[in-house]
Hints:
18 helices, 41% helix, globular
Amino acid sequence: xxLPVFLSTPAATGQxxxxxxxxALPPEVRQGQEVDxxxxxxxxxxxxxxxxxQPGDDTHxxxxxxxxxxxxxxxxxxxxxxxxxxPLIYLSGGPGGSTLETLRYGYEELTAPAFAAGRDLIVFDQxxxxxxxxxxxxxxLEEYMLDLLERQLDxxxxxxxxxxxxxxxxxxxxxxxxNQVADLGAYHSAASAADVxxxxxxxxxxxxxxxxxxxxTRLALEVxxxxxxxxxxxxxxxxxxxxxDLYLEAPANFRRSLERLFAACxxxxxxxxxxxxxxxxxxxxxxxLNASPVQRPLENPFTGESYTAPMSGDTLLALTFQALYDxxxxxxxxxxxxxxxxxxFTFFDRLRGALFGMQSISSRGMMFxxxxxxxxxxxxxxxxxxxxxxxxxxxxxxxxxxxGGLAYRICxxxxxxxxxxxxxxxxxxxxxxxxxxGEFDPVTPPAWGRHxxxxxxxxxxxxxxxxxxxxGHLPGCPRRMLLAFWEDPTRAPDAxxxxxMAAH
Length: 504
């Protein structure tokens, strides 16, 4: 395979340097043939109009020069060669999720649609993530969270106040360590959007197609806002619009997903006969486990390490939330819930172990920087507490979670600055955009996709029956619509196959 022409560009617009692929590839993928890798150098500090900065923000320089950071990039080529000059750039979720470190597990999901479209697929780890440098990882924090699985401190039970205090201390320690190598206020969506534009310019493409998933849709929308001239089309899969309040709306979004699950079981004669009164069984089990948690053996499937941890009702809620992401689990989840009501937690134990393993491939510091800078900066803890009153059955899960109430206490420690108010406004654009949402998605509901489409004059929104978090990577109807859109983004793809999905 032949690399695109790499332009010799000034540092302000990025420079690309080919290198070895420093991550695990599937055995059939060969460097220099099916894939080419390298690093894109970009400015760490990108001035953004209206954004507040922290004291000492000008200290992260090399001598008198602005500091450059490196983004790890991989360019995958279709087996028969490209049929179209405009590639796909995939924007991963999180924020903080590394696409490259997990690529060997999801290679087919990402490359199959791109190759069927006859286009190169460009995958990169966003600034602060994974194989990019610096990576805003918090390994000591992850270790602490594993150590506290048994809720023990010095051989005695630890209460919530103690564990939270220690966790915040670990967050502060991680912040202090990372602040020695990075300006934590420089890692946010506006800066990452500029990185995407630099990547396009450095690789010499006149136009590209963006394909964003989850948080990647928020980043894609920011690119649309700031750099529309370099875009041919945009796919937003599991839409996360900038004016949504992820933390404040989380309980309502999860509750909606649960209600869809219970209603689908009730409407299905087989499910209803096997698992009658599923909703009441579920919440009764949550209440029982919160009153008397049970100790469960767990194993990290990636390392083989074993743990023992309590299974509380709030833990069962959190694991059910994660299970609803996966479209394939939707038909199995009622059975797993019923089994848990009979003290059979086999499925949830395995899921929990896998989630522990995944923690090490997510850059927690990057997540804090992005969310504190542009999400929680526009959210109110008082409003969050009021929302907890509306959903008392879910309050325990959210109040003491990094993805809930704890985030409001972490951000004052993280000091990532605050985005301009424009970062919290809808994106208006006439770019061809395909918006995809799954019916059962517990975190980015279809309503968010519909809302984002309102200000996109050439946006086509579709809700996919029966699916969870993310649709475009799945074969069948979603992929056919995706390929039709990439072939001709000026027309809405044929959506007649949605009726067949609804029938099943």
